[in-house]
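Input record, target 12 of the design panel.
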């Protein structure tokens, strides 16, 4: 599937539902799902909440967890998976996290509802409060996955490398070291950033739309990256706190023609918990070289 086919409008989704097998996956919390969801949608909250590590055991657990979860939702490889959240921003990119996970697992048909349920409602589409009971399927675990997953060892090897760009897309208070996470300033044991990382806050890849935030155009996304010295032909290594906001950026960059984009899915949640791994802690304007690392 071409990358520019990932985003789907409410009208396009309605047409798709009428023409081929589709599993719609709601990534919001159970209460929001119960209050009203797309008819037939299955609630898979773990798409957002799961915290991963990048050890061999951690990645195997990640694969097993989501093969089981997506199989329970009814994905067998024949259906198109369509993820949605409230909008593209207020769920921290959680629908895009579903897209990223299925891309990593090699699932052939994945889409994200452009504008989320907010756009769906604005288009006058129906909602349901009836919980969907999916028909479980055998998720195809023998698929050839995509090389988009990075481990902490990959990141260590990339520190200081000239042929790869580390891109931090966290909120500004995390980048400056005032907070360790979106869950609270001291949720993670250390505050700071990856040594040598560049920073573009994930919100900057979106702009106001008629029904909520939408991704900027490819040229606008490329322009945002240019402000940090990042070009479409660069190899870009993304990270955030747990791979949700970075998944939003992953999709934005792929839509904009960036060919080699990968993500450190364990992100700051994993990196900050290993005291042997280097971080930058000085104010960003002072942390201009890898020499500014602090344990």
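The sequence produced for target 12 reads:
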């Amino acid at each position: 599937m071409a990358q520019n086919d990932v985003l789907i409008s409410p009208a396009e989704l309605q047409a798709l539902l009428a023409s081929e097998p589709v599993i719609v996956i709601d990534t919001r919390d159970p209460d929001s799902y119960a209050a009203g969801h797309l008819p037939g949608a299955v609630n898979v909250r773990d798409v957002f909440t799961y915290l991963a590590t990048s050890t061999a055991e951690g990645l195997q657990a990640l694969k097993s967890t989501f093969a089981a979860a997506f199989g329970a939702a009814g994905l067998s490889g024949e259906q198109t998976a369509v993820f949605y959240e409230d909008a593209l921003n207020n769920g921290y990119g959680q629908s895009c996290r579903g897209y990223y996970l299925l891309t990593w697992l090699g699932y052939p048909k994945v889409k994200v509802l452009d504008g989320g349920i907010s756009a769906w409602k604005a288009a006058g589409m129906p909602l349901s409060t009836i919980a969907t009971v999916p028909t479980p399927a055998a998720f195809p675990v023998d698929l050839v996955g995509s090389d988009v997953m990075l481990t902490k060892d990959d990141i260590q090897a990339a520190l200081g490398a000239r042929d790869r760009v580390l891109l931090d897309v966290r909120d500004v208070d995390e980048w400056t070291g005032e907070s360790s996470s979106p869950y609270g300033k001291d949720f993670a044991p250390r505050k700071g950033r990856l040594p040598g990382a560049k920073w573009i806050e994930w919100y900057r890849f979106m702009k106001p739309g008629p029904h909520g935030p939408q991704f900027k155009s490819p040229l606008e996304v490329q322009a945002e990256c240019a402000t940090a010295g990042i070009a479409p032909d660069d190899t870009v290594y993304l990270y955030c706190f747990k791979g949700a906001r970075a998944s939003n950026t992953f999709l934005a960059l792929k839509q904009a023609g960036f060919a080699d984009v990968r993500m450190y899915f364990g992100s700051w949640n994993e990196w900050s918990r290993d005291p042997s791994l280097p971080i930058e802690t000085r104010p960003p304007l002072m942390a201009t070289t890898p020499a500014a690392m602090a344990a």
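The first strand starts at residue 7 and ends at 8.
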